[in-house]
């Protein structure tokens, strides 16, 4: 557990109970209890001793303690190994690690499986482009679609295109190196 | 400048700070020291010390052991030990505590009750 007492950030200590509404534009660390509504434009960290029973609206949320209530985050929600949560999550990025306990619904927004399938089938039919490296498992194709795909592969194999995956790897590597600098 | 003075590390270990951009509307209760740099409306009840720093604004009834005000407080203060109004603070409300200190430069409007035993008068 980190014990940071930097100025300008808010810490709710272990024995503190706040009931009502809490609004703010800075990071908040909860080691005690907060009940009601909690609205921040920055990061909420609920430490293992912290309990939040509230409607939470934040930018980022890290849960190592307990949250009962719905969490809406404009960036991410992370439930750590020690985190417990009951409620709904609405955030573009949701991370739940092994050991975390959670019950509720998750809405990550723009996960439109149907639309993706449509675009895939459309693109594969008229122009047999070398298929993009499978970033995600392909949606269950119908038998007809599979035939089309097999044809595509055969055509692609006759004139070998540059395998896309090593390029992607190289790009990632380069990025990492830049980051280290 | 009697602005942000560092509060000595509290005995209880945990240290609660309500930062300057935080607004709390409701009730705060607890058993440890509380430093307020933001805004609190409603009620505060603690068993330890409350520090209202220069940027702190409180519109609440306060019930604690100790209160140290450098910011603004509107509401009644009841302390079991001591209330200290520092220079540059603004306090409107009644204060009730056995020990009350008002520094030069503090602004205060309200009643003061030090629980003086009026046995002689009665």
Explain the overall architecture.
The complex is a heterodimer of chains A (181) and B (122). Chain A is α/β, with parallel strands linked by helices and 181 residues long. Chain A has three helices and 13 strands. Chain A has two domains: 10-107, no CATH class; 134-181, no CATH class. In chain A, strands 1, 2, 3, 4, 5, 6, 7, 8, 9, 10, 11, 12 and 13 form a 13-stranded parallel β-sheet that branches. Chain B has 122 residues and is mainly β. Chain A binds chain B through residues 5, 7-26, 28, 31-32, 36, and chain B through 4, 12, 14-34, 38, 42. Strand 2 of chain A pairs antiparallel with strand 2 (23-30) of chain B, so a sheet runs across the interface.
Order of helices and strands of chain A: EEEEEEEEEEEEEHHH
Number of strands of chain A: 13
Average pLDDT confidence of chain A is 75
> Based on CA inertia axes, which overall geometry of chain B fits?
globular
Q: Quote the distance from N terminus to C terminus of chain B.
A: 45 Å
Number of helices of chain A: 3
What is the arithmetic mean of pLDDT of chain B? 86
Q: Determine the structural class of chain A based on helices, strands and strand pairing.
A: alpha/beta
Helices and strands in order, then pairings?
The complex is a heterodimer of chains A (181) and B (122).
Chain A: E1 10-12, E2 17-24, E3 28-30, E4 33-40, E5 43-46, E6 51-63, E7 66-68, E8 71-79, E9 84-86, E10 89-90, E11 93-96, E12 101-103, E13 106-107, H1 113-124, H2 143-158, H3 164-180
Parallel strand pairs in A: 1-3, 2-4, 3-5, 4-6, 5-6, 6-7, 6-8, 7-9, 8-10, 8-11, 9-12, 10-13
Chain B: E1 16-18, E2 23-30, E3 34-36, E4 39-46, E5 49-52, E6 57-69, E7 72-74, E8 77-85, E9 90-92, E10 95-96, E11 99-102, E12 107-109, E13 112-113
């Amino acid at each position: 557990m980190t014990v940071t007492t930097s100025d300008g950030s808010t810490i709710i200590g272990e024995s503190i109970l706040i009931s009502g509404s809490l609004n703010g534009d800075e990071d908040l660390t909860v080691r005690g209890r907060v009940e009601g509504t909690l609205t921040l434009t920055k990061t909420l960290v609920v430490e293992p001793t912290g309990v939040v029973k509230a409607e939470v609206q934040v930018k980022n949320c890290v849960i190592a303690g307990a949250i009962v209530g719905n969490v809406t985050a404009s960036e991410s929600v992370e439930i750590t190994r020690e985190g417990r949560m009951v409620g709904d999550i609405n955030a573009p990025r949701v991370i739940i690690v092994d050991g975390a306990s959670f019950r509720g619904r998750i809405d990550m927004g723009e996960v439109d499986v149907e639309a993706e399938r449509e675009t895939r089938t459309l693109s594969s039919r008229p122009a047999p482009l070398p298929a993009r490296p499978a970033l995600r498992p392909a949606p269950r194709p119908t038998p007809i679609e599979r035939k089309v795909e097999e044809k595509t592969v055969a055509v692609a194999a006759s004139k070998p295109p540059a395998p896309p995956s090593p390029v992607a790897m190289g790009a990632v590597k380069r990025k990492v190196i830049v980051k280290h600098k | 400048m009697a602005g942000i003075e560092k509060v000595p590390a509290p005995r209880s270990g945990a240290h609660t700070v309500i930062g300057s951009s935080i607004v709390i509307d409701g009730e705060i209760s607890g058993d440890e020291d509380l430093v307020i740099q933001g805004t609190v409306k409603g009620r505060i009840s603690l068993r330890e010390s409350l520090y209202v720093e220069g940027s702190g604004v409180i519109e609440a009834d306060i019930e604690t052991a100790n209160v140290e005000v450098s910011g603004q407080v509107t509401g009644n203060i009841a302390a079991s030990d001591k209330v200290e109004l520092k220079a540059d603070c603004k306090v409107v409300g009644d204060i009730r505590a056995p020990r009350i200190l008002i520094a030069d430069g503090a602004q205060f409007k309200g009643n003061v009750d030090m629980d003086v035993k009026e046995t002689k008068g009665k």
